[in-house]
Amino acid sequence: MQRKALLLILTLGLAAPVAAPALELGAKIAYWMPQFTGQFRLDAGGVPGTLVDAGDDLGIDEENSFFGEAWLWVGDHHLTLSGVKVDYSGEQSLNQEIVFGGQTFVIGGRAASSIEYVMLDLAYQYDIIDLENPLGGFSLGPILQVKYLDGDVKMSGDGEVSGITGHIDESEEFRFPLPMVGLGAHVGVLADWLELRLRGVGMAYQGDSILDLQGEAALTPFP
User: CA-CA distance, 57 to 140, in Å (whole number)?
Assistant: First the structure.
């Protein structure tokens, strides 16, 4: 599954030094406009499911949503917690027979599908390179992150049970953490009047992989 997104900062950007410049606490709310692509299947009872494309086969479209993030930075230590609730859904006539959760949805039948989940990311970064100064700077460090997903996938429509065609419903919940590793970089210009942040984390597991890439440019005219 690939996940690409455009983040538009909407309402709150708070970065307040507390007691000393080395301590920074902040939060932000953004509007998330994703481009969603992915393939998945749902096996059940030893019956392998059909590998389907979420967009082409099921007509699932992306939905915009709000995205929140809070952070605590102490010197070279950076702790970040972010979260988003996602709801993708679609409905269309099937261009192939689909086995989903042990149920068979017939070709040409109308089917409604959805993927809903809450995604939380807890990340820790330690800067091993820190060249910050009043005129500009650069920092770079490894990231340890845990991504937690809690949601469900559903499909309902025209299906076949014991040779008889009728309406069927099938759903499956998923709930699991994914450990990830990566790198984060920060570039500041003119006492962080302009800041660029880049981060990438990923992990391979059971023949699959997940990769998150994020880039951010921030302009602070009034520090």
Answer: 42
User: How far apart (Å, rounded) are the C-alpha atoms in residues 94 and 50?
Assistant: 12
For strand 20-37 and strand 65-74, is the pairing parallel, antiparallel, or unpaired? antiparallel
Q: For residue 74, what are the contacts with CB-CB under 8 A and spacing of at least 6?
A: 22, 23, 24
Q: Can you say how many angstroms the Cα of residue 218 is from the centroid of all Cα atoms in its chain? A: 21
Judge whether 219 and 197 are in contact, CB under 8 Å: no
Q: Are 204 and 182 in contact (CB under 8 A)?
A: no
204-216 burial, b at 16+ Cβ within 10 Å, e below that, comes to: eeeeeeeebeeee
Rounded to 5 degrees, φ, ψ at 25 are -125, 130
* Whole-structure pTM value: 0.78
pLDDT, tens only, 123-162? 999 999 988 766 778 899 999 999 999 999 999 999 987 7
pLDDT confidence tier of residue 5, bands split at 50, 70 and 90: very low
